[in-house]
Design brief:
By secondary structure, the chain is of the alpha+beta class. The protein folds into two domains: 245 residues, Bira Bifunctional Protein, Domain 2 (BirA Bifunctional Protein, domain 2, 2-Layer Sandwich); 90 residues, Anticodon-binding domain (Rossmann fold, 3-Layer(aba) Sandwich). It is 37% helix and 21% strand. The chain has an eight-stranded mixed sheet with strand order 1-5-6-11-10-9-7-8. Strands 13-12-14-15-16 form a five-stranded mixed sheet, with helices on both faces. Helix 1 packs antiparallel against helix 5 and helix 5 packs parallel to helix 9. The relative contact order is 0.12. The mean pLDDT is 92.
Length: 418
């Protein structure tokens, strides 16, 4: 037997309705905010992620699925969605359209990492990207999209944590202060932090090693070093969140795990998915478009894992949607009915009625059991007596009531009863 690769998971027919529930909710939220969908390829040139995500990230250093194609080109399965959207924005000259450009995506992403709850080597992301807007209101609206999604799904126990990590003007000052603090401690930190010390000391604050967390607890705070423009932007974001009644906590330790972030960074935290509690993360990345070859353009957005979202809904006992069930199950119980019932079923479907029928030559008793298992609302019996009268017997499976209905009236009968 050939088994599924480690870190991947089948979404089976009896579970896919949960995905439909979340995807439909996402699309309804996006429509309210006038955000249009973008779909980018599953794989991109590796250079995109080296330039966009950054070569000091775990994604680039450890986790990418990279290979040479038959043209000897380095190709990578997308490990995240934002760089792909930035590439599409530049390549398709979307900057020439009225701004802002507001986009969302739902896509599989691939990372070679240790599988854990809600995070697989192939998992799925929902992301929102706003391009062209420098205003703090854009940051606030992006966070509001996420808050609206969680509210629509019934999730009310999330904490929004927010920080500012400054810009290219003020961050070097903080990096110098951070390196000065870390200088006497770096030998006691992990190998990854040692590697980051020269390349990108800010990323050291994102380390999850216990000994590094303990040292970082006393590190200087970046909010004490950001420039006046970044402070003003940060304050305006907080004012906007207050105006919308979105509860938040300023957490000066948040830096996020990707190199492209500037100014605003944020996370929605849940206590219902174990130690890895971030269910949604994002922020502003004003340098990314230029980094992937475009003209300078402000951008802000977020990404969240759909598997994690499903896990939270299940852990909280919240609605994960309803499995699809047929309006009607059609049971032919005579030879004449067996010759014509497929056309009868097709007519039901053509008129917007979901219908299932016997494809297994079951007995009537077995068909009734099967219809009950499918949770069909009605069972239609087609027998000799019914067909001689140009009618059918209809059983309401919820109430147990039986009706005799003319064949030319069955469509209306079912629609009225739906």
């Amino acid at each position: 037997m050939i088994n599924i690769p480690k870190g991947t998971k089948d979404v089976l027919p009896d579970q896919s309705y949960k995905w439909h529930h979340i995807e439909e909710t996402i699309r309804s939220i996006a429509k309210k905010f006038c955000i249009n969908e973008i779909r980018t390829p599953i794989f991109e040139h590796t250079e995109l992620f080296l330039r966009g995500v950054g070569d000091t990230t775990d994604i680039v250093n450890k986790e990418m699925y990279t290979f040479l194609d038959k043209g000897n080109r380095s190709i990578t399965l997308k490990p995240e969605g934002t760089s792909c959207v930035a590439r599409a924005f530049v390549e398709s000259s979307l900057h020439g359209q009225p701004q802002p450009t507001k986009m969302y995506y739902m896509t599989p992403v691939f990372r070679y990492e240790r599988p854990q709850n809600g995070r697989l080597r192939e998992h799925h992301q929902f992301g929102v990207e706003y391009y062209g807007a420098t205003s703090a209101n854009a940051d606030v609206e992006v966070m509001s999209v996420a808050a609206n999604l969680f509210k629509s799904l019934g999730i009310g126990n999330l904490l929004l944590e927010i920080n500012s990590i400054g810009c290219s003007e003020c961050r070097p000052k903080y990096n110098s202060a951070l390196k000065e603090f870390l200088h006497d401690n770096i030998d006691n930190m992990c190998a990854t932090c040692n590697d980051r010390f020269e390349k990108n000391p800010l990323r050291i604050l994102d380390c999850k090693e216990a000994k590094c967390i303990a040292i970082n607890a006393n590190a200087p705070l970046i909010l004490d070093y950001i420039c006046d423009d970044c402070k003003e932007h940060h304050n305006q974001v907080l004012v906007g969140l207050n105006s919308l009644g979105i509860n938040y906590k300023v957490n000066a330790r948040i830096v996020r795990g990707l190199d492209y972030y500037t100014r605003t960074v944020f996370e929605f935290i849940s206590e219902n998915i174990g130690a890895q509690g971030t269910v949604c993360g994002g922020g502003r990345y004003n340098n990314l478009v230029e980094e992937v070859g475009g003209k300078p353009c402000a951008a802000v957005g977020f990404g969240l894992g759909i598997e994690r979202l499903i896990m939270i809904l299940e852990n909280l006992g919240l609605n994960t949607g309803t499995p699809d069930s047929p309006d009607v199950y059609v049971a032919p119980i005579c030879d004449e009915a067996k010759e014509m019932y497929m056309k009868f079923v097709a007519n039901l479907r053509d008129n917007g009625i979901s219908a299932e029928s016997d494809l297994m030559d079951r007995s009537l008793k077995s068909q009734m059991k099967y219809a009950n298992k499918l949770n069909a609302k009605y069972v239609i019996l087609l027998g000799e007596e019914e067909l001689s009268e140009q009618s059918c017997s209809v059983k309401n499976m919820d109430t147990g009531e039986n009706h005799r209905v003319k064949l030319d009236e069955i469509i209306n009968f079912i629609k009225v009863g739906k």
